[in-house]
Amino acid sequence: MHAAEALIARIHTKRRLKFTLPGPMTIVDTIADEHYRDRVALALAFAELLNEEARELAAIGVDVVQFDEPAFNVYLDDVVSWGIDALHRAAEGLACKTAVHICYGYGIQANINWKASLGAEWRQYERIFPALAASRIDQVSLECANSHVPLELLSLLGGKDVLVGAIDVASPEPETPAQVARTIEAAMRYVPAERLYPCTNCGMAPLDRTLAQQKLAALAAGAALVRGRDQAG
Predict the structure, then answer these.
(1) CB 165 within 8 A of CB 148
(2) What element of type H or E holds 102?
(3) Could you report the per-residue pLDDT of 22-57, keeping only the tens digit for each?
(4) DSSP-assigned beta bridge partners for residue 141
(5) How many whole angstroms separate alpha carbon 127 and alpha carbon 21?
(6) Could you give the CA distance from residue 101 to residue 1 in angstroms, rounded to a whole number?
(7) Which of 139, 17, 137, 151 has its CA nearest to residue 83?
(8) Residues 26, 87: Cα–Cα separation, whole Å
(9) Distance (Å, whole) CA 170 – CA 99
């Protein structure tokens, strides 16, 4: 489905490329199943198809294939019992790096109401981070800007690269470099600098192009601030 897009991107840059695909658990959560009538069987069937797609992207020259799994926030027991297994099937045999992105969803009222019900601290990650740390996935991408995830939970992801969301894609205002730097430095208390990758909380497609560019500029400037302080220290 995405070979043409990946080829165009690969032809036009020598820099590293990441491509995102929906994760099998999230696909299962968003469709009606009148065939398998079994969430695990359906997830594994989709994981096989995702694996075909991911292998093609890696062969084209994509450096990181990321699977987006907002459902990992909801079905915590299922994540441990079969969600990570389905993710492993989707990532099987890939020569490139693999990542999983766990987000909260945006826009619709049901998501807004659900997030409001989670309280001041979103601690559900305590149940799935140890399993992710033991998984074969290389990187875990998280929303850390305005998400109420206690950053000390990042220490449960020992051995993984952690993509720290330092840009709130639901905010109508661009962050300042200082705000971005504060988020990065807070995460660095729990993640070694060599394993920390600053990024946006989630995709920026819903944003005005100018605002998206301003937020990306702030992300780069904030990361540069942290690097400068680190080198000075």
Answers:
(1) no
(2) strand 97-102
(3) 999 999 998 999 999 999 999 999 999 999 999 999
(4) 101, 163
(5) 24
(6) 20
(7) 137
(8) 11
(9) 22
Task: Look at the block and give the residue holding tokens 């200082």.
Answer: 178
- The SS3 of residue 202 is coil
Helices (H), the chain: 3-12, 24-29, 39-60, 76-78, 84-90, 109-116, 125-133, 177-187, 209-232
Q: What is the 3-state secondary structure (H, E, C) of 19-54?
A: EEEECHHHHHHCCCCCCCCCHHHHHHHHHHHHHHHH
Rounded Cα distance between 59 and 162, Å, is 25
Q: Residue 61, CB half-sphere, CA atoms under 13 Å: how many?
A: 13
Q: How far is CA 188 from CA 44, 97, 125, 144, 165, in A?
A: 36, 22, 18, 12, 13
CA 83 to chain centre: 15
CA angle 79, 84, 85 (to 5 degrees): 120
What is the per-residue pLDDT across 173-229, written as a single tens digit (0 to 9) for each? 999 999 999 999 999 999 999 999 999 999 998 899 999 999 999 999 999 999 998
Contacts of 113 (CB under 8 A, 6+ apart): none
Question: Quick check: 205 and 169 in contact, CB under 8 A?
Answer: no
Instruction: Give the CA angle between residues 132, 184, 201 to the nearest 5°.
Output: 60
Amino acid at 122: W
Residue with tokens 């400037």: 221
